[in-house]
Predict the structure.
Amino acid sequence: MECRLYCDSPYLTEWRAEVKDIVEKSGKYLVILSETAFYPGGGGQPSDRGTIDNMAVEDVYEQDGIIYHVLEKAPQNKAVTCVLDIARRFDMMQQHTGQHLLSAVLFRLYECRTSSLHMGEEELSIDVEMSDMPARVITTVEDTVNDYIYKDLPVTTFIVTPEEAAGLTLRKTPPKEGDVRIVEIESIDRSPCCGTHVRRTGELGIIKIVKTEKRGSETRVYFKCGRRAFKDYRLKQDIVSGLVRLYRMSDSEVLEKTEAMAAQLRNTQKELSELKDKMLKVEAREILSASTSGVIERTYADRSFADINTLAKHILEMSGTVVILGSMPEKRLLFARGPKIDVNCGKLLREHLAAFNGKGGGKDNWANAGFDSVEEMEKFVSFLKELISKK
């Protein structure tokens, strides 16, 4: 087994290694090194990135105890220079150590265990065994977690046997076979973990819970640590500053003003919807009064499919006719009929749409379809009118 430098030297950025083997697979080259500081992923933490002899490491993974480094081309030298993307690594160390600390505080304060970790390039979350997490709990947890950060506690790792691990007070159950690597945050947490971590809690900078979601009997907690939290604060500060300039008021007044404007907008939208409904009802009467056929067919160049649905509803409420209405912007068609018309709308669409590159269906009295182009929709409308006239 290769020497795993990331275990004891997580801040190592450059080293020399011997290429032990190269495996070609699916157009890529899987390089096995004599020693590596590239973390292969595990415990919820993504794998590292960097270069080997200036060639980008696209992925790193472990299989059957061997660490493979995925490259586009095979290294030409037997001894190679490896360089770690330390900015990415440090971000992952901040997030992973932050997760340990957050999970430890949740367990200490509320005996709430963490069931899973989701660590991505942008998003970080844990699922915890708590059915609800009210605002007061979030505030208490955040305050406690950041107090531990300000104390700048040491974060250490050590290896024990499964028997020795069984005698330790651990937040998670350790594996029963092989050596067990323990990550300890002084005075707050001990947990078995294979990932990389910062040296002291002070390097986390800050931990901020950004949102929570109820997931059955558990809660998913989204949070950010260190630089990610700083970037998130910068983004939200830019938003608030923009609103302050727009509304010409102080930071503290922005939320109240935004809520008031949102309420006003909802009222306006409701009034607009009611007015539009009345106008469509008037239009429905005009269409029926001008119609000399049992089929109402229109195609609109500037009308949404939602408006067409409302218009069709009013037409059918006033007359038991057949309605074929199309929206050119959305390339969608509505086909409906009154209760006394012997036409199965949904069945007709399903039987004939494919010939016009359309998709859709519906009930026997109300159906709709979408098309790749307006031309195909218009051809189908002509076909449909002819088919109905024969019936």
